[in-house]
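Allow me, if you will, to draw on your knowledge of protein folds for a short while. I have a record of one protein: its chain in single-letter code and its fold written as discrete structure tokens. I remain grateful for any guidance, and I place the record below:
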Amino acid sequence: MSDIDVAALAVVVARGGQLPAGADEAVAEAGGAALVVGSGAREAAEALVAAERSWWAETGPGLRAGELSARLGAVLGHVGLVVLPASPDGRDLAPRLAAVLDRPLLASAVRVDPGPPVSAALARVDGRLLVGVRAAGPSVATLLPGVRSVVPAARPDKPLPFELPPAGPTVDVEVLEVLAPDPSTMDLSEARRVLAGGAGLVPRDASDAAARGMFTLLSRVAAALSASAGATRVATDAGWIGYERQIGTTGAAVDPELYLAFGISGASQHVGGLGSPRHIVSVNTDPSSPMTAMADLGLVTDAGALLRELARRLDVEIPPEVADE
């Protein structure tokens, strides 16, 4: 096979056989056709749920966006719409691929219709604004994770191997080493463990310094557990933690294996950013809160007190402004 002749195709970059966040959503948006590239591509392709037709091409560890886009561009010329999940690798590859194919890039889409003509709704201003666009011809799009549901393919074909042509001379990065991501700074959408805090983590009469100290403690405990720290919009709007840590419909979409919610009631705006965590633990004084109701384990206790005790047991330094709360 010299090329892939479908109307729409999802291109998914795997790392070590693991699919990025939003992979199946991108496949579903592309109508069930997928090409998985990267390291462990075959294993990752077999893990797709929404793919009716899929191919895999092993391209090795580390993302060489210039080389990979050149190789993909040689075989995707007949594909009207190429959809990539808006994961870190997808966001890196999509602009280079759009340039190679000489197509517009529809970035941060919440909906893409292959048409023709191709149309999309793009999220702007931190998700507070949707912009409708229409492309005159074939396009490349990145789809935000958590924006659509996924229905498993009824009769999926077995993933087929696909040989990408050589890239030829390209200007690209040289991959010296592939390092494991630091959970404290990695993209939340890629985190496998998340400790998140809400307004219930902070006492009502706490000062801003104490509130920020509590979220500093949350981040330190998360790091000790090889997890990433997250928060609700209330916490980020208050300035207790950075906006890049916000989870929800106007923040990051996550789908971790373990989700620990400290003082989070479970408002729809927040849980709208949760995928399907394998395990959810809720720490809240309200046993009837939505988050506790959806949790595998609900701990009815003060979230701040439990976090400090957890810090002591993990030998984590407690900020002085919250040590005696």
In short: The chain has two domains: 8-161, 188-323. The CA atoms of residues 127 and 250 lie 5 Å apart. The two ends are 66 Å apart (CA to CA). The mean pLDDT is 91.
